[in-house]
Write a structure and sequence with these properties.
Structural class: mainly alpha
Largest sheet: 2 strands, antiparallel
Strand order of the largest sheet: 1-4
Strand content: 5-15%
Mean pLDDT: 82
Radius of gyration: 37 Å
Length: 323
């Protein structure tokens, strides 16, 4: 079960990484188109004598940067696709596509104390360590029992007289019960004592391991819960920055078209918008991944229903059965 959960998280992380890279390609493509339009407009204004050569050079540099970012995004998309293909266990090249939408996270705040309590109730790896600790107690009782002397009680039915004939020797008369005790203890009990002491050491080690893991698990749950809260705040700030960046581009473009400023403001606004959209896409992908990681930390992650809030990953693969 733990291995299945880890595989599901790895596949989901690779999936959302591919979705984010596809979104990066779209963003960089739009940025490239806007940069080319700005370059064409700057060259037209230069021919009309309305701007200087510096404006055209800035626009050309913006186009060059946008092209490099677009090519880098395409290359990163292919790398993400190969990684997802590998995690899907596919050895042949199969055409597939992914859903472009990343689910929005639930803005409901998390009670950290309740989350830690849920993890202590549900985490399978904690239950495994608790079972090991209980098993060490059984090993101690077994080793202690081996140190006790061996006491045997024997009950025998025997005849103490002879029979006159061979036929009478098969009768049941003349038989009596005989009871005797046997107590045995080896002189050298070094091996048993060593086994007993080893069991005590193993019991203490298992207890320390259980206590340490409980503390570490609590810290991990708190850290992941804080990470999710931070991702929600980052996503909200990124959404606001994208909105502001688009307005900044519109204002800068309008001022440039009316001759109130040069295209330096437009170039700067375009760069800021691209960075804001990149951060928003990354924040959205991170929030989707950390949601799954938190459910795994709480021990309530079900790979078959919790990947996209009740459905499996929407991967569409051509000419092959659905995975």
């Amino acid at each position: 079960t733990l291995a299945e959960q880890q595989v599901a998280i790895d596949v989901a992380a690779a999936y959302y990484r591919l979705v984010a890279q596809r979104a990066f390609v779209d963003v960089t493509r739009q940025s490239l188109e806007r940069a080319r339009k700005l370059r064409d407009a700057s060259e037209a204004k230069l021919d009309a004598g309305l701007v200087s050569q510096l404006d055209v050079l800035r626009a050309q540099q913006l186009v060059s940067q946008a092209e490099m970012q677009f090519f880098d995004a395409q290359s990163a998309t292919e790398d993400a696709r190969d990684q997802l293909q590998f995690l899907l266990g596919r050895t042949i090249e199969a055409a597939f596509d992914v859903d472009r939408e990343i689910p929005r996270p639930d803005p409901t705040p998390i009670d950290i104390d309740a989350a830690v309590s849920a993890a202590r109730r549900n985490r399978l790896d904690l239950k495994i360590r608790a079972d090991r600790s209980a098993d060490s107690e059984h090993q101690i009782r077994f080793a202690r029992n081996q140190l006790l002397p061996q006491v045997d009680v024997n009950l025998a039915l025997t005849r103490r007289e002879t029979s006159n004939t061979f036929a009478k020797s098969f009768g049941v008369d003349g038989y009596q019960f005989a009871t005797f005790f046997t107590i045995a203890m080896p002189v050298d009990r070094t091996a048993s004592l060593v086994e007993y002491q080893t069991s005590l050491l193993e019991r203490d080690r298992q207890r320390r391991d259980l206590t340490t893991f409980e503390r570490q698990m609590g810290d991990d749950v708190k850290r992941t819960a804080r990470e999710q809260d931070r991702s929600l705040r980052t996503l909200a700030a990124a959404d606001a920055n994208v909105d502001l960046g688009r307005r900044e581009v519109d204002v800068a473009q309008l001022r440039y078209e009316r001759g109130l400023s040069n295209n330096l403001d437009v170039v700067t606004a375009e760069s800021n918008l691209l960075m804001a959209e990149t951060r928003r896409i990354q924040a959205l992908a991170d929030s989707a991944i950390v949601r799954l990681r938190l459910r795994a930390m709480l021990g309530i992650f079900n790979p078959r229903t919790d990947v996209t809030g009740g459905a499996t990953l929407p991967v569409q693969i051509a000419r092959v059965p659905p995975w």
